[in-house]
Amino acid sequence: MTDSLTAPISPLPEIGTPVPKKQAWYATLWVQVSIAMVLAVVVGHFSPGRAIAMKPLGDAFIRLISMIITLMIFCTVVTGIAGMEDMGKVGRVGGKALIYFEIVSTLALVVGLIVGNLVPTGKGFNADPATLDTREVASYAGQAKAQSVSDFVIHIIPTTVVDAFAKGDILEVLFVSVLFGFALSAAGPHCRPLVDFFEVLTHLVFEIINILMKFAPIGAFGAMAFTVGKYGISALGPLAKLIATFYITGTLFVLIVMGGIARAAGFGILKFLLYIKEEMLLVLATSSSEPALPSLMAKLEKLGCSKPLVGLVVPTGYTFNTDGTSIYMTLAAIFVAQATNTHLSLSQQLTILGVAILTSKGASGVSGAAFIALVGTLMVVPSIPVAGMALILGIDRFMSMFRALINMVGNGVATLVIARWEHELDRATLQRNLS
């Protein structure tokens, strides 16, 4: 594979070659998605019934992207690994990524725990768990179950190869993809036609994604209109302090913690955020990081990260690097305890932290998964009444928007950091591409 630093410079266009026209501002994706979100808020506020009926538009767009994600990951990882000369790099990159994910996501859990104690968002609620309507929480509790480390590892291995793609489990697909990549690399020239086929298929998949992304404004409108119409802006009032605390904490985590990591790696966090503004808006509208996954991976490759590195780090981070979810889980757990007047000792809070380190790994960016993971955490820590989760169920969609955003940004930063560790791109090249 040609290194990005030694790749030949493309020749200048010949005289007479038509220069591509600059895209009009209103034709750019981020402008269209922004307009769609503003319209969605207006419709949701003034015509809730019609807004709720728009839900299929958002669901359909998410499903369109979801149907192609597993194939995209498979092709990207297989062709990337099969074309690598240094097979040891795969294990090295994977090891660095897991260590990075564990450190940063644990730091996010600690930040949520500290902020929850410093800013008592639940004080004054005096909620009696016995009087709360827990029917909807019970449905989430049915999906939440304690998962041991061995259970998690076994879950990575699919029942069959086809089953991994049928379920759409990204971690299982990644496992199969790495195996196929190693096998094709070991087979050598005999399997070269198959590698060429996957490379052509990769180009085809990304062309399909380009087509599907044209529907992003429609999907964003449907998802945001449903959220505002269903839950209403007025529903934010009683829990405004919790929402504001989470949003401010998450923003500071991105700017200070991720910003510090980015600066150490040689790039500015604000430039990176501007670079992925389309993906950020899409995540905010749909409350899920999944629709932004394909275009985020493509943009990271354009910055100079190699295809196998992007293919390994981003999908793995989708499960293991959930910084926004981590902040939310400990912050929300402390809120529920305060709202139900449940005193937590230091040892109990450390128990919550330890359990959340495991349960947060099951919240993989799908809307609502973090709520399930938090219910699972509280079930393991009986000192906090699970019934108290009914207090925040109504605003979970608004919390989900921002935690998915932080998750996505964190995965992008992690990929660039690990690419710098692997000497795939230098500081000057990265800054120039971001500009």
Which descriptors would you attach to this protein?
435 residues, mainly alpha, Proton glutamate symport protein, 71% helix, globular, disordered N terminus
The CATH homology group name:
Sodium:dicarboxylate symporter
By DSSP, the count of extended strands is 0
- Low-confidence runs (pLDDT<50, min 5 residues)? 1-20
Q: What number of domains?
A: 1
Task: Specify Rg, calculated over alpha carbons.
Answer: 22 Å
Distance between the termini: 26 Å
Could you describe the largest sheet, including whether it forms a barrel? none
Query: Tally the helices: what do you get?
Result: 21
CATH architectural label: Orthogonal Bundle
Question: What is the CATH class name?
Answer: Mainly Alpha
CATH topology: Proton glutamate symport protein
As a percent range, the share of helical residues equals over 70%
The class by helix and strand makeup works out as mainly alpha
Structure in words:
It is a single chain. The protein has one domain: Sodium:dicarboxylate symporter (Proton glutamate symport protein, Orthogonal Bundle), CATH 1.10.3860. Helix content is 71%, strand content 0%. It has 435 residues and is an all-alpha fold. The two termini are 26 Å apart. Residues 1-20 have low confidence and may be disordered. The protein contains 21 helices and no strands. Helix 15 packs antiparallel against helix 20.
Write the layout of secondary structure elements.
Blueprint: H1 29-46, H2 48-52, H3 55-82, H4 88-118, H5 135-143, H6 149-156, H7 161-167, H8 170-187, H9 192-212, H10 216-231, H11 240-265, H12 269-275, H13 277-286, H14 293-302, H15 307-320, H16 323-339, H17 346-359, H18 369-380, H19 390-393, H20 396-421, H21 427-434
Helix pairs in contact: 1-10, 1-13, 3-8, 3-9, 3-10, 3-15, 4-11, 4-15, 4-16, 4-17, 5-18, 8-15, 10-13, 11-16, 11-20, 13-20, 14-15, 14-20, 15-20, 16-17, 16-18, 16-20, 17-18
